Structure formats: structure tokens, C-alpha cells
Amino acid sequence: MQRIQLNGVEVNIEASENYIQINDISDENLTRIWSDIKAQYPGYELALCFRDVPVPTNALLAIGAEILDDCLAMRVWQDSYKPCNSLDVVPLEKADFAEFAALHDKLHPAPVMYWTSQRLLNAWDKWRIFVVWDGGKIIGYTMMLIALRDEAQGEIFVVEAESQDHCKALISAATGCAFAIGKSEVLFMVDRDGHHEYEATEAVGFRKTGFYMGYAVWKV
Description:
With 220 residues, the chain is of the alpha+beta class. It has helices at residues 27-40, 57-63, 97-107, 117-122, 164-180, 195-204; strands at 2-6, 9-14, 19-23, 45-51, 66-77, 89-91, 127-134, 137-145, 153-160, 185-191, 207-217. The chain has 6 helices and 11 strands. A hairpin with a 7-residue loop joins strand 8 (137-145) and strand 9 (153-160).
């Protein structure tokens, strides 16, 4: 993405995707630049992300933003990590990507999920994906982004698992991978209603450190 200043506010633009992302903007600034966004980027999708900051509820309501994510920030460090090894969990091979893609896009269709299978494939080196196979089919997986602005951090984006044991094992595999390649912490934004994932992260050593909220305007 290209980072630009729009009337004094940092905005991330992906022109090829008609996509704008703004992080941690205040009520005042969002109200102030909304007319600029509409004038310069009509038809674009706008994503607004907030981590541990006041959420500009009034401005979001005024622009018709829809809430997508209401999550708890869970973090783990190497000294608190509790491995949960499982022979069922293996790294996804690129040769098996089509099998993974079919499941991922079914469970997380665009535009709700920005990271579609095609975008993941285009950014293959930025991700580590782990899967669980059963009967020749992928029945569970997790995705971890390793190319972040904070180079010391890895971030788990999605965990899909049929059982609590597989959920815990997938989270553990991604976390162990992050530490093995030199990351010092792993972040996972767990849905506030995701008790299954919350308990699994705690079992692997994660603890709650904050929150994340995401909103979207599908078409500016």
C-alpha cells in the first residue's frame, strides 16, 4: 500500500484494489477529511481500524460505516509461550494452495475479508499458513502475517478448526514458527464472542492486552 497525507491525515491507498485504510483516526479528523475522501476516491472501499484508542462513534455513524470486528488483543512472548505440539498440524505447501483457497474463500468471502486467497497467493512470502488434513481434505487452518511494520511481531489473522484441540494446536504452531524466525511477540485479535479461540490462546500462553475494532464503508 502507498501511504499518503490527506489533509494532514495519514491514509493507506491500494489504487489497484480501490481500497483505502485509515488507522486510529479521531472523530474530528474523520469528519474533516470525509469530503476529501468522497471527492478524490469515489467508489473505493474504506476500512477504518482502531487499536486501544477512542473510537469516533459519531463520525462513523455519520458516514454510514458498518462494524466488522470487535476484538480483544491477545499477545504472547517467548518466555510465556506454552507449546502444544500436534502431528496433525503442518505448514501449507504451495502445491496444495488451491485446496486451502477453496475453504478459505468459502469461510471468509470478499469483501468482508480483505485477505482473499488471491491476495494471499500474491503475498505468499509475507505469510505462514498451517493446516490440518483429514481424508485428503483440509479441515482446519491458521494464517500468520510475518511482514509487519513492527518487524519484531507476527500476527495471527484467522484460525479455523473443528475442535478445541486443533484450534490450540494451530495457534501453537503459528506462534512457535514466529519465535523460530526471530519474532519476539505474537498478536491475535480474538472476537469478543470467540470463547473457543480465547480459551485456546490462553492455553498457549497469550494474555489480553487491549482491543481492536474495525469498520467499513463498502463504497465511498
